[in-house]
Specification:
alpha/beta; five-stranded parallel beta sheet; two-stranded parallel ribbon; 14 helices; ATP binding; Rubisco expression protein; ATP hydrolysis activity; nucleotide-binding; AAA_lid_6
Length: 287
């Protein structure tokens, strides 16, 4: 084979479909989407080069996702697993999400089997370690996180054709984590930073969440939600889309109680679907 039809190969992998879904399903995150496209392009071209017998080093696939909670890191991880599977870089394409508690034991001899069991489940797919910096606790001499890191390093190097690792968490703690663990840092090729959502983007996300459950905001409720998001973003522990989901869950609870308290009236679909401004205001007053 001396030539390849790029369009045909592109279509075979369904990469276009996956990238389009990424655009459709995720609001904002333009730099993240651009970086995922770049990685997908590199992997596709690398595969085509191999098909033509061109010598090439396998691209590094391990990744680092940094950013605040609720910015779509896990969702993008799922899409990345699909892309890697479609291009043949992983055999199964599943995503296994874990934290420190899944990897690190509480006594001598407990960590190695725990970590190895997780790695066994993840083989053939993507291992997503959330808040990965908690693996390393240098102030505690009796901590076993370093043992988990050593095992992880071995697998990332020796079985890199069988497993892709994504380390995720807040940016500053992740930077310190890599500084303290240069072996890990050297094995991470792709660093992707997830920006916080704007107020406008969070309102769009809220509408999408409600639409999935067949609710809708009245115009006044949208104004109230926009005001709430603007204020809430300035307070501690704001978790972007995760905080919005929690606020909407409370609003739905408030709507249900409002309707229940007026149970003498005849209900229409409109009453059951609409989230009113008061539902937002009463459910977010202390949050």
């Amino acid at each position: 084979m001396n030539a390849i039809n790029l369009q045909e190969e592109y279509a075979k992998t369904e990469i276009a479909k996956l990238l389009n879904l990424l655009d459709e399903e995720l609001v904002g995150l333009a730099p993240v989407k651009a970086r995922i496209r770049e990685i997908a392009a590199l992997l596709l071209i690398d595969k085509l080069r191999k098909n033509l017998g061109i010598t090439t080093n396998s691209p590094g696939l391990h990744m680092s996702f940094t950013g605040s909670p609720g910015t779509g890191k896990t969702t993008v991880g799922l899409k990345m697993a699909d892309i890697l599977f479609q291009l043949g870089y992983v055999k199964k394409g599943h995503l296994l999400t874990v934290t420190r508690d899944d990897l690190v034991g509480q006594y001598i001899g407990h960590t190695a089997p725990k970590t190895k069991e997780v790695l066994k489940k993840a083989i053939g797919g993507v291992l997503f370690i959330d808040e990965a910096y908690y693996l390393y606790k240098p102030d505690n001499e009796r901590d076993y996180g370093s043992e988990a890191i050593e095992i992880l390093l071995q697998v990332m190097e020796n079985q890199r054709d069988e497993l892709v690792v994504i380390l995720a968490g807040y940016k500053e703690p992740m930077d310190r984590f890599y500084e303290s663990n240069p072996g890990l840092s050297s094995r991470i090729t792709n660093h992707i930073d997830f920006p916080d959502y704007s107020v406008e983007e969070l309102v769009i996300i809220a509408k999408m969440m409600l639409e999935e459950q067949q609710y809708q905001l009245t115009p006044q409720a949208e104004i109230a939600l926009t005001d709430y998001i603007t204020r809430r973003k300035q307070k501690p522990l704001f978790a972007n889309a995760r905080s919005i989901k929690n606020a909407l869950d409370r609003a739905r609870m408030r709507q249900a109680n409002r309707i229940f308290d007026s149970r003498g009236q005849v209900l229409t679909k409109k009453e059951l679907v609409n989230i009113e401004a008061d539902d937002i205001l009463q459910s977010t007053i202390f949050n």
